[in-house]
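User: I would dearly like some help making sense of a protein record. I have put the entry right below:
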Amino acid sequence: MNSPWPIPQPPEFRVDWAALEAACPWIPSLRGCEQDAIHHAEGDVWIHTRMVAEAMAALPAWRALPADERALVFSAALLHDIAKPSCTRREDDGRVTARGHSRKGELQARVLLWELGVAPADREALCNLIRFHQLPFFLVEREDPARTAISVAETTRCDHLTLVTEADARGRICADLEKLLVNIACFRELCADAGVLSGPREFANDVSRVEFLRTPGRDPAYAAHDDLAFEVTMLSGLPGAGKDTWVAENANGRPVLTLDGIRRELDIDAGEPQGKVIAAAEERAREHLRARRPFVFNATNLSRELRGQWLNLFHAYRARVRMVYLEVSRAELLRRNRERDARVPDHALARMLERWEVPDRTEAHVVEYRW
């Protein structure tokens, strides 16, 4: 990873806090953000983040990583609680909580790193470390932890994740530190036993992978029969990322289902209620699916939740799903938006960025990235 902030370097691995504070625009929001005294007796989120970064720089396993991986994992330690200021609440019983800060942190970090020009593949690896950074604390206590570990490994290096979580544990003052460290060690062992510590599991084929991820209790070693006879291509990307251009160059005569086209037909603005648009799109999709007809679904499809509604439909009809994700730099996206006939208002684009989640291998049989 080509880091936009300084990473501790050998042999001393000293954390340069003056340089970091100058390079990290989210740091001021962490100061004064309170935490629950039971789990974080050290103080506010900024004190915790400093302790986590220092703990990371001291870990022999982190120091042994290649330089680009050290940069990635250390950056995850710096950013792991970026969303706590917006998620922190004092409950009626007086306890301080920050529910949802891991997922929201993924979203906030994605936009920040995109704006800073971090390479997309590195950005997504970092964002997934933030998304799952609490998982090793408790996964071994849950039902079927191996299944979750295999799913997480589709997007996240679990050996990197254990380092982030270990630094998170060591960078705090709490009564249950030893239990946390034991759980993290058990998580690492669980991932090693499942064959996913340093990369995703190798499935028999793409159908086996999707069937395992979508079917509770499925044996990951089961080789599913590939009986998928037609393909749905689902596009995803911010407005201006190049989806229409991709369609023009790659549809090759396949029908194209586009929400913008249906809005124009029904004379419904994007800012109005979209129930009729979605209903019409779903019916047209079913027509193609019943006929086992390959087609292209062209929409922004920015969130996992929204994509999931369509993916459930496509998978139910036994379609092979190919996801094509398109992305350009922030400067290029803004330039294209200014030149669009139907320019997306700034406030609408800001709302889209708040729910922007990049597709991954847990969602489709094939995921292609055009960035």
